[in-house]
Design a protein that fits this description.
This protein is an alpha/beta fold. The protein contains 16 helices and eleven strands. Strand 6, helix 6 and strand 7 form a beta-alpha-beta unit. The chain binds nicotinamide-adenine-dinucleotide and magnesium ion.
Length: 344
């Protein structure tokens, strides 16, 4: 296996971004972090927002200047598109494309729209990606703590001959080169990101947790016990994996747990699961998943909203909410995807 090149602060020229005007389009999870980190790193920043956007006030309170998206595009040398991926094509068509000029750089934090051709910029601009491997709020918090969240960079189109150096400089101002930046392609980032979130991080883990919880409850065990066992403890195990890999987790648990891991794990995640993973990957690669998701959004997202409504009523959520309330040290949050976060 070839070792990937990792870029750190010592490998990049932070000055490049200081000579550029940066427009951050959108002020959500990633947008606020990119705009504020760059501002603190001494980059000239404008936030591009829709007229009447509720985010404008929040951005201005943080000392940022806000422009309508089309004005921000005209003003900028570099623009980072941080609106939801499903909205980005419309934002691009209406506000960005008509105002582009040669030699500008369009950046993304995820490759979806370039990989699947839902945004097609002209040949005369740079197209690059800096994708932090962490949620936006962590990108901001770790920067403020003097650290950074690792990121991927990718160059899809290098019209100026400077796209890579400039992207690395962008990653430095974001704090990412403090932690390490790896080079990838739009295709690799998009396909592995979709695969990881579907098979492990979101889809795989949610299904594993709920199916195991249901199995215990159907067998007559107390739901509270099932919740602790199948959901709550997961974090403790993942923390061990995060610090020292599977070896450290297996070192830390009992020999009984370790033996059960070896003999039962492969029965749960078996050849059938592996075959299904391969099918899911193939549908990501050939665009089937992307087409379905784009169509779902174009037709109002009915199926998506039905799935969301069904899943947020699962009994594990009621049981968990009650138990977490009694553990204030967890800093529990009441949140559903449909209503967002309450009490923040
Ligand atoms: P988000 O949903 O948090 O924020 C989007 C922001 O875009 C909103 O706050 C608003 O300012 C603006 N917006 C929303 N709808 C709009 C519209 N119709 N027109 C114009 N502006 C609109 O989005 P996010 O999670 O920060 O994602 C932004 C990009 O970053 C995506 O490409 C995503 O894949 C990528 N990304 C996100 C994360 C993450 O932590 N959330 C991690 C890595 C990459
Ligand atoms: Mg991801």
């Amino acid at each position: 296996m070839a070792q990937a090149k990792v870029y750190y602060d010592r490998d990049v020229n932070p000055e490049l971004m200081h000579k550029k005007r940066l427009a951050v389009i959108g002020f959500g999870s990633q947008g606020h972090a990119h705009a504020l980190n760059h501002q603190d790193s001494g980059v000239e920043v404008r936030v591009g927002l829709r007229p009447g956007s509720k985010s404008a006030k929040r951005a201005e309170e943080k000392g940022l200047k806000v422009l309508p998206i089309d004005e921000a595009v005209k003003w900028a040398d570099v623009m980072m598109v941080l609106v939801p991926d499903t909205r980005a094509p419309a934002v691009y068509d209406e506000f960005i494309a008509p105002n582009l000029r040669d030699g500008q750089m369009i950046m993304f934090a995820h490759g979806f729209n370039i990989r699947y051709g839902t945004i097609k910029p002209p040949k005369t601009v740079d197209i690059a990606m800096v994708a932090p491997k962490g949620p936006g709020h962590r990108v901001r918090e770790t920067y403020e703590e003097g650290g950074g969240v690792p990121a991927l960079i990718a160059i899809e189109q290098d019209a100026t001959g400077q796209a890579k150096e400039l992207s690395l400089s962008y990653a430095a101002a974001l704090g990412a080169t403090r932690a390490g930046v790896l080079e990838t392609t739009f295709a690799e980032e998009t396909e592995t990101d979709l695969f990881g979130e579907q098979v492990v991080l979101c889809g795989g883990v949610s299904s594993l947790v709920t199916t195991a919880f249901e199995t215990l409850v159907e067998a007559g065990y107390q739901p509270e016990i099932a919740y602790f066992e199948c959901m709550h403890e997961l974090k403790l195990i993942v923390d061990l994996m995060y610090r020292g890999g599977l070896n450290y987790m297996r070192y830390s648990v009992s020999n009984t747990a370790e033996y059960g891991d070896y003999v039962s794990g492969p029965r749960v995640i078996n050849d059938q699961t592996r075959a299904e993973m391969k099918k899911i990957l193939a549908e990501i690669q050939d665009g089937t998943f992307a087409d379905g998701w784009v169509k779902e959004n174009e037709t109002g997202g009915k199926k998506f909203l039905e799935l969301r409504a069904k899943n947020e009523k699962h009994i594990i959520e009621d049981v968990g909410a009650r138990l977490r309330e009694l553990m204030p040290f967890l800093n529990p949050i009441i949140a559903t995807p449909s209503e967002g976060i309450k009490g923040e």
